[in-house]
TrEMBL record:
InterPro entries: BPSS1780-like (IPR047798). The keyword 4Fe-4S does not apply. Keywords: Membrane, Transmembrane, Transmembrane helix. The keyword Transmembrane applies. This is DUF2189 domain-containing protein. The chain crosses the membrane at residues 24-42, 86-109, 130-162, 182-213. It comes from Trinickia dabaoshanensis.
């Protein structure tokens, strides 16, 4: 694992954009497929948490596709599917971790909202407020740990041959060690998400694949694969 400067957080998006420009139409098509499947899973009764499983699997496939595109210029849905199929078992194991995090967040999410209202308006002192604050703390802790552990895990599994446990630990450690770069990256990502809202979702067709490609660049920067 390499320590990188804070400015690399923006550089990862620059590298992702350069890769996106090689095959923009295909990357947009893959982003659209990702969006459609995510929406369908989210809308199905009792299946919303499965979006966490799909996201990890799809991220692994996109990492494989990005690596192939960078090396050969080839890109298509088949590359994503192949990446998922070849690395299915370790990706699925990491996805189960993501599912557990999603369940914890679902169970504590409403209480977390109550905790925020209590903090904002000064309500405290009774048993229910204490439970809300504890649930809020659990929610924030689970969300933070999950995000840090899962950010680079699929890329490490696909590009570096890491086991699920190794990938989750390494992703968490890399995000922690490179906190300034990760913070810059997160702020840019948040700005891009805001752009999606302001454009009524149109920008997501570019932003979605760009997030995957910038993650690919970040993984290569912090964990150069052995060739």
């Amino acid at each position: 694992m390499r320590a990188v400067a804070a400015r690399q957080g923006s550089h990862w998006f620059s590298e992702g954009w350069a890769l996106f420009q090689q095959r923009p139409a295909m990357w947009i098509a893959l982003g659209l497929i990702d969006l459609l499947i995510t929406v369908v899973l989210y809308e199905l009764p009792y299946a919303s948490d499965l979006t966490a499983v799909f996201t990890v699997l799809w991220t692994g496939g996109m990492m494989y596709a990005a690596d192939r595109c960078r090396a050969t210029g080839a890109l298509g849905f088949a590359e994503v599917v192949r990446g998922i199929r070849v690395h299915f078992q370790p990706l699925f194991a990491a996805a189960v971790f993501g599912l557990l995090i999603a369940i914890v967040c679902d169970l504590t999410g409403d209480r977390a909202s109550s905790a925020l209202r209590l903090i904002a308006f000064g309500g405290a002192g009774n048993k229910s407020s204490l439970i809300a604050l504890v649930a809020g703390a659990i929610y924030l802790t689970a969300a933070l740990i999950g995000t840090m552990a899962l950010w680079l895990a699929p890329a490490l599994i696909v590009l570096n041959g890491a086991t699920p446990a190794e990938a989750l630990r390494a992703s968490f450690a890399a995000t922690w060690r490179n906190g300034p770069a990760a913070l810059v990256y997160g702020l840019i990502a948040a700005g891009l998400m805001l752009a999606c809202v302001l454009t009524l979702g149109v920008a997501v067709l570019v932003v979605a694949p760009l997030v995957y490609l910038s993650t690919f660049a970040a993984s290569l920067d912090m964990f150069p694969p052995e060739r």
